[in-house]
Please model this.
Amino acid sequence: MCGIVGYVGARPALGIVLDGLRRLEYRGYDSAGVAIVCDDELRTEKRAGKLANLEKALGDERFGSTRAVDQAAASPPAIGIGDGTAGIGHTRWATHGGPTDRNAHPHLSRDGRVAIIHNGIIENFAKLVAELEADGVEFVSDTDTECVAHLLAAALADLRDAGEPDGPQLLAAAMRRVCQRLEGAFTLLAVDAGIPGAVVGARRNSPLVVGRGPGEHYLASDVSAFIEHTRDAVELGQDQVVLITADSIEITDFSGAPALGRDFHIDWDASAAEKSGYDYFMLKEIAEQPQAVADTLLGRLTESGEIMLDEVRLTDQDLRDVDKVFIVACGTAYHSGMVAKYAIEHWTRIPCEVELASEFRYRDPVLDRSTLVVAISQSGETMDTLMALRHAKEQKARVLAICNTNGSTIPRESDAVLYTHGGPEIAVASTKAFLTQLVACYLIGLHLAQVRGIKYADEVAAVVSQLQEMPDKLRRVLDAMEPVRELARDLSTANQVLFIGRHVGYPVALEGALKLKELAYMHAEGFAAGELKHGPIALIDLGTPVVCVVPSPAGRGMLHDKVVSNIQEVRARGARTVVIAEEGDLAVAPYADDLIYVPRTPTLLAPLLTTVPLQVLACEIAAARGHDVDQPRNLAKSVTVE
Ligand code: AGP
Model:
């Protein structure tokens, strides 16, 4: 998830774009860059790291030539980057290509006269890159975006060669041609040095809004970028191209037919706008989960149905030699590893252990060259997990990372990495990172099964297509959360909440308990449902809330019936049962004091849905208790000490 800004008007663009990027930095901060059209030239600057690095590189130029120039100079100063009145800017959350200067946006055409910035994932970039390289294009970055810069320049050249009149319309026509060749999720902004006073944008499966001002217009990933200048905005629809000049906004579809955006007035303040109107980043990130899951699936299947890992310094033979898998992680990441265990063992028949990273190396685990250690980490900097992977490497095991932060330490020290494309997760309590870790774990399980010949490409594709149905199912779950919010207000005074589940529902129970502990500072504990009768059931008091995660009755039948029995056991002892079950499962209804249905889903994939009500429950209970939901006490987003 990146931040993008565009401006055209009568004022110097650079300052406005930089201010917009500052407001969008929460969307990604691996690098930042700008491209400003200045007097038939394109002036660009980009730097890895936070926006401050870019501003430092721009120096006084960012104030324009009027301030930086020697007033005694005889001739007027050359137009500096701070003088141009049309430009674009980008703050990056790296997906393809590490957070470096050369991978920073904007990306340029070979002649440096066309600049593009991008938010999203070009799913067919490998094929486009191969085509362009065959035409002699030399790429200077590792990103999927750079190919769009070259395609756009080529489209502009073709249109000019065909005698099309130069100007803003030409830029829009070229953008439409390029968009028709792209697959995946993208928001694109572009400028051409030869077409002053115009910025063109395009979107598919990724946000883009227009800001409407007097004699000036804005484009941005979200309204927080321009809210201080205007509150009149236009929301763009799917597969649309928008051309802005100082005094016009033109919207078409990708074929060029006129289209309409949705006008709206922004009634948020700037701070609320960064959260897209949500009270907390956590709520925003819960809502982003359908897109995060979809983005993590994007570009993962080759044309032959092979799972494509991001960076792999492991051969297929290395993976075929694996005879044991250890998953090491902490907290929520550990819970995603517990779910992965069921999937990996079911699909590959390789033994898979899940270990708390902080315990792993102290128990002298038996590791060798045939062991695959999977290190799961949202931040990529968790010291416990990093030390566990270093120990694994010392024992000659091979390490594969699942990580949400491109270029962080854990993937850098691993032999292979599958990045989750969840975008920055600002709230300390992990939500979309968890769901995207699950998706990554499923993909790795499928990849191992395929490489080892236990699953054919069509079998892998069948599971992937079930995964591709999950974003819509997640949206249905999110649309039905009002009863959970009411339940949360009801439970906010409870002194404990217990969570039970079996099979993949057990890690979900643990995750639900962790969310409640870390957000509501309430005693909460997760149990394997079958374990209750061995002691924990003594905790049940009259009215004790017990959240019961029920597996699909269509899955392993015995699992479902046993959990229903467990629900009866706790209810018989006075518990208030909060049941999470699959739509149509009527067997649980008589024993549920509160019943939350989720769409029907294959057994192993169910945690993608059953976790979401527990996230919302914990968040709303914390809010009802007046806690700082995004930054709970005693915690940090990334624990870089052992
Ligand atoms: C979960 O909500 C917590 N924020 C915490 O348990 C977290 O999952 C754990 O610290 C691991 O962090 P990582 O994924 O960045 O390695």
Q: What stands out?
A: Residues 1 and 242 are 20 Å apart (CA to CA). The pocket of 2-deoxy-2-amino glucitol-6-phosphate is lined by residues 330-333, 377-379, 382, 385, 428-430, 518, 638-639 (CB under 6 Å).
